Amino acid sequence: MKFSKDFIWGTASAAYQIEGAYQEDGKGLNIWDAYCQEGGHVAHGENGNVACDHYHRFREDVQLMRELGVKHYRLSLSWSRILPEGTGRVNEQGLKFYSELIDTLLENGIEPMVTLFHWDYPLALHQKGGWLNPESPDWFAEYAKVAVEALSDRVSCWMTINEPQVFIGCGYDIGKFAPFQTLPARDLAQMSHHVLLSHGKAVQVIRTYAKKKPTIGFAYATPCWTPENTLPESIEEARRRSFAFSRKGFAFETAWWADPILLGDYPKEAYEILGEDMPRIAEGDMEIISQPVDFYGVNIYESKAVPKADGYAENASMGCARTQMGWPVTPDALYWGPRFLYERYGKPILISENGMAGHDWIHLDGKVHDPYRIDYMKRYLRELCRAAEDGTEVMGYLYWSILDNFEWADGYDKRFGLVYVDYATQKRTIKDSGYFYRDVIATGGEAVFSDTWEG
Ligand code: GCO
After folding, report:
1. Mutate which of 46, 115, 119, 163 to test ligand 1's pocket (most atoms within 8 Å of Cβ)?
2. Measuring CA to CA, which residue among 300, 250, 297 is closest to residue 272?
3. N or C: which terminus of the chain carries fewer CB neighbours within 10 A?
């Protein structure tokens, strides 16, 4: 097995999780700033006020990426750093930061891949009703236009939204993430519609105003069900479950979010099951939402599962391998997830996130030895390569994340990075897995198949 020569090898991050400078140089507050300060939502009362101080240390961080031979870097823009009130007044210092970051990436041979929205919704717009406000798609389109006009002379790869399943599902259904609300199905459905309209309007804006020919997608979470065995009926059952629609938790599901963009309408089961709670769909909405995109970005960490009679989830068992997040290690998720998505939607698949949180620390020799992360990456990447060899069009793989960072409600305990961050000193230390990934990139993926990688 081998990866294609044009395979995209990269890494990823998100503004709120690494930048810090939460109210510096004119930045407006976002809902994570506000709700972290409210207290009671994040482990140890932590917040993104400083995070990895990437706002001031981005040049050092880009040098780390260069040392690892990273060729593509997925970053997100902080909406309220650019538009402090979400609309209207532009904060030129905010744009200056991103312009300098993108220049530094390009000077170091690293292609920026920009996510417009990665959960850090402007507080001022939240206070106007947020995603429930019917004006919210136009707010997003206005923001997209400011970003595209400022950066698209150098940026050509755009992702509109990151994981609506999580920022709507966790933010407004189960209340685990900012703004920690639990709303009725009707509101969740209407918010979803506004998010999808926001995506579609942003695609139109990028296609209209981008100075460099754009490649456009999104970065979705995906409940990826995997078959119990290779019997056709088992595979079909996993496929069916992967695109099923159910009233409970529909905001977390794939077809709800992907069918409107890629098939032009909500799944028919949604109309049958939600009934009156379906969104109000105006004339032309579905045409806006289903603007053509160029790729399907998907963040896959584990296969989806539900608890069995014995209490363990379907993809787990007593003492099974788990990451620091408690997520079972299920490499075949990176075979079946991309395969099922490609079969249904026919778009090239970009793994916009995959990685693991580990109990990392600086060892007595001053290094960070994380053999479990190297093993994890080998297992998942071998499955991804197998999917490509079996006919799934796989564009690339972006490891989550370049740096240890703020893991939302889990705070800083959970370390996903290829680079260890000592938050007391902001000292960065490349982990063994970072050097492994350097060799994966340098060998075009061959190192993935080594059973004796020595670094
Ligand atoms: C996500 C988010 C990231 C997370 C990462 C680890 O996919 O949940 O995009 O911001 O930090 O996935 O949970």
Report:
1. 163
2. 250
3. C
Confirm whether 353 is a catalytic residue: yes
Average pLDDT estimate for 416-429: 98
Q: What is the pLDDT of residues 288-321, one digit of tens each?
A: 999 999 999 999 999 999 999 999 999 999 999 9
- Give the atom of ligand 1 at the shortest distance from the alpha carbon of 325: 13
Would you tell me how many other CB atoms lie within 10 Å of the CB of residue 410? 15
Known catalytic membership, residue 163: yes
Cβ-based neighbour number of residue 287 at 10 Å:
10
Which residues approach ligand 1 with their CB closer than 6 A? 14, 17, 162-163, 166, 221, 299, 353, 400, 407, 416
Domains of the chain: 8-449 (3.20.20.80)
Give the integer Cα–Cα distance in Å for 266 and 119.
23
pTM for this entry: 0.98
Q: Are 378 and 3 in contact (CB under 8 A)?
A: no
Taking residues 449-453, what's their average pLDDT? 91
Q: What is the mean pLDDT of residues 71-85?
A: 99
Helix/strand/coil for 118? coil
Contact present, 204 and 284 (Cβ < 8 Å): no
Residue nearest to atom 11 of ligand 1 (CA): 407
Tokens of 420: 């260890």
Mean residue pLDDT across the chain: 97
Asked if the model's pLDDT at residue 223 lies above 80, the reply is: no
Residue closest to 278 by CA, chosen among 269, 286, 290, 270: 270
374 pLDDT higher than 90: yes
Residue by residue, DSSP assigns 297-364 as: EEE-SSB---B-TTSSBTT--TT--B-TTS-B--TTHHHHHHHHHHHHH---EEEEEE---B-----T
Do 351 and 334 touch, CB atoms closer than 8 A?
A: yes
Please report the pLDDT score of residue 453 as a whole number.
Answer: 83
